[in-house]
Specification:
31% strand; Arc Repressor Mutant, subunit A; PH-domain like
């Protein structure tokens, strides 16, 4: 009997020989992790046994690389994976930890309901707390703040975080709030913005998190960016990044010239409505941007001449207002439907 597939999707993996980072199709099984060069490949490029392995997350061995986790096997071999965004990393980490625990206990992997009727007083679920903080209606409001002739976009102050924790009864007092906020910072759920908060996070201050109106922080996948007081041209250039991120993840994209397919990380923003795509293996700047205002997005059959080189289903096409065609491929029919719906909403509401 073949091992059960628990989770699969694109992750960026660090090579064990040349130490380069490349996107891989990764499959989590009950007893190990297989990784493939392409989703359509029949044989994996490698396999990581989970029995006796340990998992480290967040893994901060690579400076600016975010959402990295590390698996260390019994032979002391380290395998590094990078997710596209925080929730994706946490989902992989949860399932891998559970798979390792099931192997140790001789149990079968089975998902349980996440509904909880009682909140344990001594247990704090940082992942759930983070999602509540990001809630568009009841969460922490993201602002554009100015300090030292710089504008910090999509961020908030340290005292706002503590205020929110106290007012939502997540903590009993501000001192306890500092402890929780420091844990959120240490786990990568919050990021420091500006010298004051960065210095505190680096250990210069007594507490890594500051309950201070001059200390700025941001959510790691919020679209945060900082800009100096600049010319009008620079401001216009930055305008496309001001939109709120409503969806992100890895998709296959067909090139316009060679018509070859490559894995790209996509970030969908609305108001203004843009779909930016990045090299998932690294690089802070996007490789390109698709302006979605007035676009048309539809599913595509794989028999189409335009996509004849693709080996999979789940294709869809974006036609911009300027009549530029983009062919993209999701991993599953469900994922394709979700992307199409999200893009349609953004194209109608964004500028």
């Amino acid at each position: 009997m073949e091992p059960k597939r628990i989770r699969e999707g694109y992750l960026v993996k660090r090579g064990s020989v040349f130490n380069t980072w490349k996107p891989m199709w990764v499959v989590l099984l009950e007893d190990g992790i297989e990784f493939y060069k392409k989703k359509s490949d029949n044989s994996p490029k490698g396999m990581i046994p989970l029995k006796g392995s340990t998992l480290t997350s967040p893994c901060q061995d690579f400076g600016k690389r975010m959402f990295v986790f590390k698996i260390t096997t019994t032979k002391q071999q380290d395998h590094f994976f990078q997710a596209a965004f925080l929730e994706e990393r946490d989902a992989w980490v949860r399932d891998i930890k559970k798979a390792i625990k099931c192997i140790e206990g001789g149990q079968k992997f089975a998902r349980k309901s996440t509904r909880r009727s009682i909140r344990l007083p001594e247990t704090v679920d940082l992942g759930a707390l983070y999602l509540s903080m990001k809630d568009t209606e009841k969460g922490i409001k993201e602002l554009n703040l100015e300090k030292d002739k710089k504008i910090f976009n999509h961020c908030f102050t340290g005292n706002c975080v503590i205020d929110w924790l106290v007012s939502n009864n997540s903590v009993r007092n501000r001192q306890e709030g500092l402890m929780i906020a420091s844990s959120l910072l240490g786990e990568g759920y919050l990021q420091p913005a500006g010298e004051l908060s960065k210095n505190a996070a680096d250990g210069i201050a007594e507490n890594p998190f500051l309950d201070n109106a001059d200390a700025f922080y941001y959510f790691p996948d919020s679209g945060f960016f900082c800009e100096e007081n600049s010319s009008d041209d620079d401001v216009i250039l930055k305008e496309e990044f001001r939109g709120v991120i409503i969806k992100q993840g890895c998709l296959l994209k067909q090139g316009h010239r060679r018509k070859n397919w490559k894995v790209r990380k996509f970030v969908l923003r609305e108001d203004p409505a843009y779909l930016h795509y990045y090299d998932p293996a690294g690089g802070e700047d996007p490789l390109g941007a698709i302006h979605l205002r007035g676009c048309v997005v539809t599913s595509v059959e794989s028999s189409s001449d335009a996509v004849r080189k693709s080996e999979e289903e789940n294709l869809f096409e974006i036609i911009t207002a300027d009549e530029v065609h983009y062919f993209l491929q999701a991993a599953t029919p469900k994922e394709r439907t979700e992307w199409i719906k999200a893009i349609q909403v953004a194209s109608r509401t964004g500028k």
